[in-house]
């Protein structure tokens, strides 16, 4: 590694650490853990993910959404902040690491596609609102009950606003103002660190803790002890579904930012290798008392903009966290908890993006519905956020199946340039009553074979003089057992009425299925053609038609430039 690259990574690593240290402590509190567990999650996981993953700039550590999901999953089993809760959080990191590592080793990174972009957008917007609102009690210095309905909890906080602890509120507002102001006017400076440093000094100076303000308090000095997490197999069984969901959501966040940065740096990101890196990061983290970690949008952007060139930047970040754990933790004693709440609220503002939901709606109404339903369901099910994302993912899959149940099927006529075009778009195009030409755009599988069959039979009923049905199969990407069975029966049914089915433009994978199932022989090699032009020429030859060919024109008269 060249000295120039090493210097660039060192600067980027230190820069990210200045943001990571206060953020990690804030996110640990969001996860229901003592603040210093965030430092544990910021230490080894980031280093391991950088060494084993494929992205050179991805910054791994505590993140807001995964922290909230962790708290949501564990709250039914233990009280927030209790030793039992901490043990479950560490065990959850191990479970998530095992899931991610297994997915990576078996090259199953594609499973994240089941969480579509619109679903993630809806979930992220709802989660950001929940995260921000969940910090209101710390900003006002009042208590917040924990119930089965997040709305009731927030209402209880609102009712206590009149009892706010004024010094706590001032600390939170000042910290928020500093971070917002520096982000707007001095974006290159670490606003989070400045806000934390100034408010901590102010807290110590005025005796904030003695005035009733809540501070981080004593942080154990030194490194976390290395030990295998305590595993409760009964609880592990109950938590495995949540572990899978957090694994997928966390990885979606990590791979999204990794791909975005790779597009800028012209690097290549391997999703399966990244899964292995994230999995090992969480497994090693669980051995050092860390709770679940993932790739961070904000810190990865800081890492890239600070000039990081290799994964060594994350190693340097980890070393700064190490120094903090060994020598600097006493300085964090007087850090007000309301400041950490302000750090969280400032961070999640960037996650709120309602324009993305509108964009999904504009692109496809079904995607928009999935995004909106996920958003509403996540808010409605809070604090059980995993239910919201499961509803969204299930709906997205159902809507996808619904769309593919009735794919686009077009009856075609001859356009003036010699191509075949959709009669619904161009109803005056020439046709031939003896030949039904149809284009099927979609995979032919169990969910839509009945629609395929009904469409062909309806077309035959509307064309009593038809002798041939030509199916242009350029758009058929898949043929399953149901599709093969229906094609078989359809050919027999048409043959009984002296109508032949002819296929053109079939893809290799479809032909392979036809040959394996003997559908190839049923259709007949003489009825399968590479292009529709070849198929039409053969059909007209069989009709012994040499002059009157309404669906074919001489090549020399075709006008390719016509539209």
Q: What's the helix count?
A: 22
The percent range for strand residues is 5-15%
The number of distinct β-strands equals 8
- What is the count of structural domains? 2
Distance between the termini: 57 Å
Parts with pLDDT < 50 across at least 5 consecutive residues: 555-563
Strand arrangement, largest sheet?
A: 4-3-5-6-7-8
State Rg.
Answer: 31 Å
Largest sheet: 6 strands, mixed
Which of globular, elongated, flat, extended, rod-shaped describes the shape? elongated
User: What class, by secondary structure content?
Assistant: mainly alpha
Percent range for helical residues?
A: 55-70%
SSE arrangement, N to C: HHEHHHHHHHHHEHHHHHHEEEHEHEHHEH
Mean pLDDT: 91
């Amino acid at each position: 590694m060249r000295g120039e690259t090493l210097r660039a990574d060192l600067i980027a690593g230190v820069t990210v650490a200045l943001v990571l240290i206060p953020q990690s402590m804030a996110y640990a509190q969001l996860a229901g853990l003592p603040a210093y567990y965030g430092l544990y999650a910021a230490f080894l996981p980031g280093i391991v993910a950088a060494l084993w993953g494929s992205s050179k700039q991805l910054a791994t550590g505590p993140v807001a959404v995964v922290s909230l999901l962790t708290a949501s999953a564990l709250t039914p089993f233990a009280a927030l902040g209790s030793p039992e809760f901490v043990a479950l959080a560490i065990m959850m990191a191990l479970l998530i690491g095992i899931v991610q590592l297994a997915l990576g080793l078996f090259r199953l990174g594609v499973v994240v596609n089941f969480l579509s972009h619109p679903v993630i957008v809806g979930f992220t917007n709802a989660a950001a609102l929940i995260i921000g609102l969940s910090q209101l009690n710390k900003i006002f210095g009042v208590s917040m009950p924990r119930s089965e309905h997040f709305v009731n909890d927030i209402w209880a906080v609102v009712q206590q606003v009149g009892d706010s602890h004024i010094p706590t509120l001032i600390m939170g507002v000042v910290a928020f103002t500093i971070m917002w102001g520096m982000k707007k006017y001095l974006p290159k400076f670490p606003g989070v660190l400045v806000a934390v440093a100034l408010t901590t000094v102010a807290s110590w100076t005025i005796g904030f803790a003695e005035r009733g303000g809540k501070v981080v308090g004593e942080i154990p000095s030194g490194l976390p002890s290395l030990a295998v997490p305590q595993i409760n197999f009964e609880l592990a069984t109950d938590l495995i579904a949540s572990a899978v969901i957090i694994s997928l959501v966390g990885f979606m966040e990590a791979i999204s930012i990794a791909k975005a940065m790779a597009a800028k740096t012209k690097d290549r990101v391997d999703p399966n290798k990244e899964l292995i890196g994230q999995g090992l990061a969480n497994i090693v983290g669980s051995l050092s008392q860390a709770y679940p970690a993932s790739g961070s949008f904000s810190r990865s952007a800081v890492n890239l903009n600070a000039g990081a060139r290799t994964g060594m930047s994350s190693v340097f970040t980890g070393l700064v966290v190490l120094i903090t754990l060994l020598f600097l933790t006493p300085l964090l004693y007087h850090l007000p908890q309301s400041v950490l709440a302000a750090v969280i609220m400032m961070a999640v503002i960037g996650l709120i993006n309602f324009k993305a939901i509108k964009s999904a709606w504009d692109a496809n109404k079904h995607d928009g519905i999935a995004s909106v339903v996920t958003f509403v369901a996540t808010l409605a099910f809070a604090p059980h956020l995993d239910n919201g994302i499961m509803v969204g993912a299930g709906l997205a899959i159902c809507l996808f199946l619904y769309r593919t149940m009735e794919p686009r099927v077009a009856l075609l006529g001859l356009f003036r340039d010699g191509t075949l075009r959709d009669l619904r778009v161009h109803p005056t195009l020439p046709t031939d009553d003896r030949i039904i030409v149809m284009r099927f755009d979609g995979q032919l599988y169990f969910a839509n074979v009945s629609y395929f069959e009904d469409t062909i039979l309806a077309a035959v009923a509307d064309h009593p003089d038809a002798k041939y049905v030509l199916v242009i199969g350029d758009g058929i990407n898949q043929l399953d057992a149901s599709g093969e069975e229906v094609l078989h029966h359809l050919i027999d049914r048409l043959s009984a009425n002296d109508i032949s089915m002819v296929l053109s433009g079939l893809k290799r994978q479809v032909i392979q299925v036809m040959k394996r199932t003997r559908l190839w022989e049923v259709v007949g090699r003489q009825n399968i053609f590479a292009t529709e032009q070849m198929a039409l020429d053969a059909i007209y030859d069989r009709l012994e038609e040499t002059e009157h060919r309404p669906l074919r024109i001489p090549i020399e008269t075709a006008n390719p430039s016509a539209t």
